[in-house]
TrEMBL record:
Region entry Disordered, spans: 348-367
Protein's recorded name: tRNA-dihydrouridine(20) synthase [NAD(P)+]
Matches recorded under Gene3D superfamilies: Aldolase class I (3.20.20.70)
Gene Ontology MF annotations: flavin adenine dinucleotide binding; tRNA dihydrouridine synthase activity
GO CC annotations, alphabetized: cytoplasm
Any GO BP annotation: mRNA processing
Keywords: Flavoprotein, FMN, mRNA processing, NAD, Oxidoreductase, tRNA processing
Organism: [Candida] railenensis
InterPro entries reported in the protein's UniProt record: Aldolase_TIM (IPR013785), DUS-like_FMN-bd (IPR035587), tRNA-DUS-like (IPR052582), tRNA_hU_synthase_CS (IPR018517)
Pfam families: Dus
UniProt domain DUS-like FMN-binding: residue ranges: 32-288
Domain of life per record: Eukaryota
Length: 393
């Protein structure tokens, strides 16, 4: 048994996985939370500051952007009284020595160090990090080995998050998994898509039994990631693959951080509580807004009003106006749960196909809304030159 065994986890998400999201995820049932990816070189410029007022531990960039001290140069913030024992820090790296030096900076404030070997975005891969590491397994292996041997000094587990190498042939991924497991890591998370697949594409789970066997034979715990959006799916996957399998949720939690509960909240309640949580840890308002715009259905008349909000207080006063009207609009997560429940009630014969068709139509609808929202978002964010709390993925 490791820290990761059988856990339901919040995925690493740049910008969307800052402290307020992690606090809500934990409150509503996540067992472990991942930090957004932070690049080794960035972390190496940080100093650790205990923030007595908030009860947080802050990592602030020395010589960083001092426009708003403690805000514009804040790289990472954790609230130990809630996150302690449950926080995995994800590092972006392509260098075994830098990885260890950076890990040492945060080691005593986090419960595990995870290496990002799955991000396919050019800014990450062009410097050899993220999914580029899947093509340089020798380098990835030496990063993990270095972290494992140094991690022992801090008594901190090391893990890695990868993608599938091939969606038709299990062998390349199984061989890589075996190799990585032999570095001494404690956990491996697999995003069940290849680096060329987009999040809207269905994950490939066909090779899971073999990959899970490979992890277990090396005494490494395993977490499934990709298109899991709620606790019921986690329970279904555990009954299929074993109770020691963990699951990790990204986009589901981005749109509703209460999805870890069997009864997630409706979006009006999510948004209000999110802003209150953000305010309680002085989260930068630009980031609060970025996250809640992902929680609000695009068709809500409140969307544009939130998009114009400037401070956490302003956002909260808009949230207070939503009232019960927000109960009628369900989020992506709740819709999926409803579908799961319908599935149980549908007659066997045509029910499954109908459900799949509805699911596809729903996905299509969501994609259109999502693209529209992201565009609206970009315009809004560019206009305001909103500061980014962490480096973009
Ligand atoms: C907004 C956002 C930011 C992300 N940032 C990271 C990251 O920092 N590190 C990482 O390994 N993956 C990152 N990912 C990928 C997710 O962790 C996850 O692997 C992917 O979204 C698939 O999971 P899902 O189907 O539950 O969304 C990010 C995804 C999203 C949507």
């Amino acid at each position: 048994m490791s820290l990761y065994t059988g856990k339901l986890c919040l995925a690493p998400m740049v910008r969307s996985g800052e402290l307020p999201t992690r606090l809500m995820a934990l409150k509503y049932g996540a067992d472990l939370v991942w930090s957004p990816e932070i690049i080794d070189k960035k972390l190496l410029k940080c100093e650790r500051v205990v923030n007595e007022n908030l009860g947080t531990v802050d990592f602030v960039e020395v010589g960083g952007n001092y426009k708003i001290p403690g805000v514009s140069n804040l790289v990472f913030r954790t609230l130990p009284k809630v996150e302690s024992g449950k926080l995995i820090f994800q590092i972006g790296t392509a260098n075994p020595e830098l990885a260890v030096s950076a890990a040492k900076i945060v080691a005593k404030d986090v419960d595990g160090i995870d290496v990002n070997a799955g991000c396919p975005k050019p800014f990450s891969t062009h410097s050899g990090m993220g999914a580029a590491l899947l093509s340089t397994p020798d380098l990835l292996e030496s990063i993990l080995k270095n972290l494992v041997s140094q991690g022992k000094i801090f008594n901190i587990p090391i893990s890695v998050k990868i993608r599938l190498l091939d969606d038709k042939d299990p062998q390349p991924t199984v061989e890589l998994v075996d190799r990585l497991c032999k570095t001494g890591i404690t956990n491996l998370t697999l995003h069940c898509r290849t680096k060329d697949m987009r999040n809207r594409q269905s994950p490939v789970r066909a090779f899971l039994p073999e990959i899970i066997r490979t992890c277990h034979s090396n005494n490494v715990s395993f977490i499934i990631n990709g298109a899991i959006t709620n606790r019921r799916e986690y329970e279904e996957l555990q009954s299929q693959y074993g109770a020691d399998i963990g699951c990790m949720i990204a986009e589901g939690a981005e749109s509703n951080p209460t999805c870890f509960s069997l009864q997630p909240l409706t979006w009006n309640k999510v948004v209000k509580e999110f802003i209150e949580t953000a305010e309680s840890v002085s989260n930068y308002a630009g980031n609060t807004k970025y996250v809640i715009l992902n929680q609000i259905p695009g068709k809500s008349p409140f969307y544009q009003r939130f998009a114009r909000g400037k401070t956490n207080q302003e956002l909260l006063s808009i949230a207070n106006e939503i009232g019960e009207s927000g109960n009628k609009i369900v989020t992506k997560v709740l819709q999926k749960i409803e579908l799961i429940e319908t599935k149980k009630e549908l007659p066997k014969q045509n029910g499954k196909r109908k459900l799949e068709e509805e699911d596809e139509a729903q996905k299509e609808k969501e994609n259109v809304i999502l693209t529209k929202r992201k565009l609206e978002h970009k315009v809004e964010l560019n206009a305001e030159k909103v500061h980014q709390v962490a480096s973009p993925l």
